[in-house]
Every structure is written in C-alpha cells, then in structure tokens.
Amino acid sequence: MAQEQTTLLQGTLDLLILKSLALEEMHGLGVARRVEQITGGTFQVKPGSLFPSLHRMEEEGWLSSSWGESENNRKAKYYKLTKTGRRQLETETERWQKIALAIGQALAT
Amino acid sequence: MPSASRIRSFFRNLLHRQAVEQQLDSEFISCLEMLRREKIATGMSPEEAGRVARIELGGEDQVKEKVREVRAGAWLQTVLQDLHFGLRMIRHNPGFSALVVLTLALGIGANTAIFSVVYGVLLRPLPYARGADLVVLHQYAHKLNLNDVPFSVKELEDYRQNHTLDGIVEYHSMSFLLLGQDSAERVQTGVVSNNFFTVLGVKPLLGRAFLPSDEMPNADAVLMLSYDYWQRHLGGDRNIVGRVFHMNDRPHTVIGVLPPIPQYPDENDVYMPTTGCPTRSSKAFIANRDSRMMSAFGRLKPGVKLATAQADLSTIALQLEQAYPKTYPKDYGYGLLASPLRQDLTRRARATLLVLLGAAGFVLLIACANVANLMLARVLKRERELAIRNALGASKARLVRQLLTETVLLSLAGGGLGLFVAPWAMQLLVKFAARFTTRAAEVRLDSHVLIFTFLISVISGVLFGIAPAFSSTHQLNDALKQAGNQSSTSRGGQRLRASLVVAQVMVSFMLLIGAGLMMRSIFTLESVDPGFRADRVLTMRLSPNFTRYNDNKKATALMQEVLRRVNALGGVESAAIASSFPFNPGGIVSGPNQNLVQVQGHSESGDAGAMVDTMNAGPGYFETLRQPLIAGRTFSDHDDDKAPTVAIINQTMAAHRFPNEDPIGKRISFDKGENWIQIVGIIGDAHEYGLAKTPEDSVYLPAYQAGFGSRLVMRTAVDPLSIAGTVRSTVHSIDPQIAIDQVNSIERLQQESVASPRTTTILLSIFALLALAISATGIAGVMALSISQRSHELGIRMALGQSRRSIVQMLLHQGLSLAAAGTILGIVGALALGRLLASLLFHTSASDGMTFVAVSLVFLSVAGVACLLPARRITLIDPSSALRQE
C-alpha cells in the first residue's frame, strides 16, 4: 500500500516537472516555482525531492541540461525536455488521465 | 533493462565522479543564491535572507546524498566506499590484519593445494576424447576371490561380439630389450590392439598411430614412442619417424610419437601392436583359452548407458560359462564387470585424497572460527564508532555490509597469499599422489583451482565476518548509553565466543583423533616382522638378450656364472638369483599371482583356498635373505633340470594345506596332475607384497628348473648401494648385452612400501597440530578478553578478600569447561567420522580406545596451558583502582 502511494506521488512529481518544462527550459528553482504556479499552490516542491527527480530524469535521458545565465546574471543549470522526454510527457499525461477518470468514476458512484 | 542514456550516465558517474560532484555543488550554490535574492527582493535583510534560503533548501548534505542515491551506479559507489573504508581499517590495524591474513593464507593455501590435486586426479575430465564413455572390463570369479583376472585372446574375441561397445581394446605391458647401435636398453612396452589410440581418442604428435594393417600376421614390426621416452632418451629428435631399432631379433620401425598425456593403464616407454610381441603372437598362446595376460577396455557406443553395456557383456559371460564348463566351472562364480575408466584410474587415491581435503577444510573452518573470535573482540572496541555512525544515518544493513566488506577483503588477501603457499605444498602432494595414480601428472594450478581459491576466500570472509557483524549491530543503542570508555560485555557476544571456541575444540579434536589413529596404524604397520633380514640387501634386474640364452641349459650356465663372479666380489657376503623378492615394487602393484594347486591324495576343492602364489628362487636365496628354514632343506646347485622337480612351501601353506601331516615328501601339481612336484622344505613366511599384506600360501620353485630368474639378490658387508657399480661392471664383463636396471636395496624398498601411509599420516598430523595450535590461541584469546572485560568485577572480588589463587581456579574452570564440552562433542564426531578413515587404517580400529584417551589427555593439557597463560594478567589487576572506577 505504502509503496503504491510513493510511486503514484513520484509519478505525479515527474509529470509536473515534465509539464512545467514543456514550454521553455528552466533552472531548478524555476521548475519549483512553475509547479507551484500551475498547480495553484497545491504542490510545494521541496528541493529535497526536486533535485533527485531532476537528476534521475536527466540520467534517464528525458531532460538535458546546460549552464546558462539566470535572469539576474547568475550562472545556473538549465533543464530542457528532450525528444524522449516529450514522448514521456505524452505517455504520462495519458496514464494520468486514465487514472483520474477511473478514480473520478469510482468516487462518483 | 537500463536505457542507453542511463548506461552512459553510469560510466560518467563512475569515471568523472569529481566533475559530476562539482556540477552538483555549483547547482546548489546558484540555487541558494537565487533563493537569497528572492528573499532580499521581498524586503529581508541580507543575513536574514541567507538564513531563510538555507532553511528552505533543506540540509544541503542530505539533499546531495539523496541525489547521489538516485544516480546510475549508486550501488557501485557504495561498494567502492566500503572498500575504501575497509582498506583504511586494515591499514590502521596492521598487526591484527597481518595475523588474520597469515592464518587464512595457511588455511586457504593448504586447501588450494589439496583441491588442485583432488581436482586434477578425481574431478577433471579424462584427457581422452569423451573420456566419460571409456569403460574397463574386469573378469572375475567370485568364489575364488578373484576380481581382476586377465583376458585370453579367445575371451577377447568372444567379448568383441557385444553390441554396446565401440570396439574393445586389449593391452598388456612387457619389458623388452631395445637394441640400438651400441646399447642395450630395457624398455617398458605397451602391447596393444591397433585400435588402442583410436578408442582413447589420442592423436599422435608426430607420424601416425597404428592401423589395422599393422596388426596383420605378416606385417612389418612398428613402434610408437611415448613423449617422455622420446624426450629423455632420443633427445626429442623430430626426425625420429622412420628410425629402425632391433627388438626381439626383428627390425622395428618408429611410426609415431605420442603427445604428453597421462598414459593408461601404465606409463610405457614404447608401444607395439600385438603382432610385435613374441608371446602374444605365438600360435599356442592364441589358441589357448587359459593363456591369460591382457587387460581390456572399450568405449560405450553413443547414447548407451553403462548398465545396458553391463547387461550385454554379462550375457556373453553367461554364454561362455555354458559353452566351456571346464574353463568356467559353475561354482567359480564367473562373470564380467564393466566399470568407468575414471573410477578405475583413481580408485586407490580417492579415500586418501578425500580424507586430506576434509582435514584441510576443517583446518580452514577452525581458522575462520578463530578469526571470527578476533573480529568479535575488535568489533567490541568499535561498538561506539558503529553506534555513532548508526545514529548519523547509516542503516544497520549498511554497517553489516561494511563489516563484511572488511572481512572479505582480509580473506581475499589471505587467499592471495595462500596462492604463493600452494605451489610449494602442491609439489609435495603431486609426488605423493603419483604413488596412487598416473593422473597425478595432470595436477596444476589452473582456472578451476583459482576459482575455487577465490570462492573459499569469499566464503571464509563471510563466515568469519557474519557473526561479529550481526552481534555488533544487535545492541547499537545500548552502546551509546554506555558511559565512559568501558564497553559492555554483552551476554550474547560472550556466548557466541564461547560456542565458537567449543566448535573449534571439537573440530581440532576430531583432526587429532584422525592423526592419532593414522600414527597408531603406521606404528603397527612398521613393527610387522617382514620374515627376513631386510638390511644390507642389494637387488637388481638382469635382462639378457634371450635369443642368446634360448634354452634352460644356457640360461642356467649364465646364472651360475653371474653368481660365481659376484660371490667373489669383496663386499658381497652371498648372492642368489630369483624371479622376485620381498617388497619388489612390481610385485606390490600386481599382488601375488594366483595359481591353482592340487595336492596329491587331497580332494580337489577348487575354491579360493586352492590358490597359491609362486616364485622362482635359486640356491642360496633363503640364506641370503635370512628367511628361516622351518623343516626339510633349501635349494642347492643340484636342483636343476636333470634332477627331480622339487618345491619349498611357506609356513602358512604348511599349516593351511597340511594341518595334520608332515608336508615334506608330499607332492603337488599345477597342471591337474600331469606333472608332480615334491615338497622338500618349509620356509618361514615372508611379507613378499608389503607389510600390510598378510602372507598367503606360497610355493617356491628352483630357478634352475623353472627357467631364468631375472633378479640378482645380494647380501653385502657394506652399504649395499655403494657396490652396485662394481656388480654392474662384473655382470657386463660376462655379457655387455645384459641390460641392468631397478637397482635398489630392499631396506629402501621396504621404506618406500610404507611411504604413502606415512605421508598421509604426516600430512594429517601437520593439519591436526595446526588445528591444535589455532584452537589453543583461540582459548587463550577468549580467556584474555574475558579477564580484561571482567577486571572490574575481579578487582572487587579481590578487594572483598577472594584470593588470586581461587580467582585463577575459577577462570581455569571456566576455560576448561569449554574445552571439555568441545572434547565431548569431538569424541562423538570422531566416532561418527571414523568410518571414513577406516579404509586407510592397518590393524587399528577407528574407535581405538587408547588413541581416544591419549588424544583427550594431550588436548586437555594444552587447553589448560592455554587457559593459564592469560591468567597471569590477573596479577596486573589493582583492586583499589577497580573500586575507584565506579
């Protein structure tokens, strides 16, 4: 039971990160802020889970990274979706919609 | 299945660890800085902003650790860290580490050496093509106690009619004179059917193997050389094929050279087809179903099971029994047994090697138990370190893994060092194993042995690491609560160490019993009276060219001339000719020959009791050996082919065949009454075939009546081997074409005959002493530790007035009760395992009471000393300081 919960949550975080990177490349803090923004503040992403996720997804080949200048001229590591990452975003979205639909139906009865 | 990108990351993380870490650092710093600016932008002071940013980011090290954990190859990093830390711990305790590595090097080295021999001899596939399909055929007659009767040509022809074997190969070995340009050399010759090498699947190194045409009645005589003979005697000449030698008065052409493989059934110098052997190719020999000389083996047809072949061959045996009732009477219990060649080759070595492997394994176990005890003591000192690491976030599993990494590192170092010990021990062992089997030549340190060494090293490391690792992580929380430097004496740890000592004592006790039994057995064996005086007797084999001495008269004249000249030599007291002599190595291998004898006037029994050993002895033979005459007379110069045929029997036969009458004057026959031989004397029993073999019924026939005796036996006034050269030149002055070999003294041969049980005993004793020493240090170690841990309690006891003497007694009692418990378990174990040793023991019971009592006494005394040595430390305890500690 506990295991399923964490995988679900981790999957959710992955999906949110992918989604927030779909439009433009961003550094870690930016991703955290974007997730907060697009979920209307429901999800507060802590660096303790954000950075391991970013690094894991980069190693999986979903994200690529490069060093660039931040808005206030600081060196920052920028993350960008790769082709695989985009495909992953699609599958994850589909999967999520299926789950959401199923759970919605289940709760409606 | 990891993705390609993940695999790339794995290598990047592994190879560019520093760069990856640096990037992680920079990412954090930049993130922190951005957070700080965010906070400043909301109006916080720079200091406040920095603090809040840090809090929001969370513990930097913990987050970084989490990132590291998700990285590809994180497990490998952990292992590398463990290794790194383990190596550091080993370096920081060089004395302890060296002790552990040395102990293990001895244990693992001994096991590696013995395993390499066991593997080479018992386990490695035979070096012949599909070696597992080769089977040896044994003719037996159960009722006569015969289980390996040679085959006659007729019998081989019959068994070749089977349906389950791909050809039956025949073999016998003879020694012939190989005449070169100006030399006469005795060569051991394997006489084989032409399919010998084809069935074994051996391809010649040079030239060709035998063909069916080489075995035709009028074929040219051909030879194949063994690799060894070609190298040693012909200098490895690559143009040897085609060279012609003279043998048995015929030119023999070399057609090929064999590769360097262990030969079966024996090591031979050269090989020839059956048509080359004068005995084997004679018409009379071929026609006579009773002329048995050859051994036989074959190859199972593909897919045929041994049991199927056995049934097939037994059917033929049954048909023979029915067709020739005279040759195979019903009450002989005649039959044929097919057994795997590998089993046959190594039968004699198996028990000894397995006992030694078991003993070596026990020594390693004891060593592991000892090292485990040392580790336990050391882990106790590190309990606080481990507890702190646990509190800082290292999981217990991680700590166990860390400790096991350390122990496996230590034992791999031990194994590595053991590999340097092993070859030295192997050399000795190979010589030893060669006494049992020709396969000893195949023993070497190869990949299988290296894998074995690696595995036992890892297993040892886990074995001696597992107990300390778990006992230490068991009570980590207690350790932190302990005040001061005094670490706890956990009850569980104490009990574990005690049981390790009991187990050590038990196993080493069993080894000591094994060694004790072997010692007792070898003493018994060596104190057997051989039945003659073995000191100062020189023997050698003479092989004249028989085409020059082709009748009895010429042969007798030669023997007499040799004796006359040798007797005239200064150092020779007396000399005689015989066909064999006691402890003759060839005789020990083949055992007594079995001849059916009939006594005139006695009913024919035809059972095992009717078999006697026969040997030819010339005049002066019994006098030379000092074999005592019991009744009648010995042979004289007059017992030649003009005189009536006579025989001398040994005491055993006199008692066995003539229990209530005087055998002198009675007549016996070896050919069912065609010729009768009169018994003229009874001679004392001699152990012809080794001290372990009880003398059987023996008949001695005069050498001058029985043809040539090839052994010259001399009692000398001086060191026998010192005059061998003089004797040799004296014989050559009569005829330089007499080949002389197998020069040795009977005393040396007697020692040689007990060399293998003696070596087994020595090896077992070394193992047992090693085990005893290791266990003794184990007991002493546990006692010392227990004293240092209880010094506080002991101090209080002393302060309260208990005398040192009674404290020592208390500790001694504690230590000895461990030893006693181990001894009792050891006795039970030794009784249970004794059966395995029984086959190696001579006239000694595996539960020999005296050995058990003696070994127990020795063991308990050593244990007592081991307990007392550390007890000296008690005098160092100061009662007042013990009290102040509180």
Structure description:
The complex is a heterodimer of chains A (109) and B (886). With 109 residues, chain A is of the alpha+beta class. Chain A has one domain: Arc Repressor Mutant, subunit A. In chain A, 65% of the residues lie in helices and 15% in strands. Chain A contains 4 helices and 3 strands. Chain A has a 3-stranded antiparallel sheet with strand order 1-3-2. In chain A, helix 1 (2-21) packs across helix 2, helix 1 crosses helix 3 (47-60) and helix 1 (2-21) packs across helix 4. Chain A is globular. Residues 1-8 of chain A have low confidence and may be disordered. With 886 residues, chain B is an alpha+beta fold. Chain B folds into 4 domains: 4-72, no CATH class; 131-346, no CATH class; 350-526 and 755-884, no CATH class; 545-737, no CATH class. In chain B, strands 14, 15, 16, 17, 18, 19, 20 and 21 form an 8-stranded mixed sheet that branches. In chain B, a hairpin with a 2-residue loop joins strand 7 (244-247) and strand 8. The longest helix of chain B is centred in the middle third of the chain and has 41 residues, at 341-381. The chains are: A alpha+beta (109), B alpha+beta (886). Chain A binds chain B through residues 27-29, 46-49, 51-53, 55-56, 58-61, 67, 70, 72, 74-77, 84, and chain B through 3-6, 9, 23, 26-27, 30-31, 33-35, 37-38, 56-58, 62-63, 66-67, 69-72.
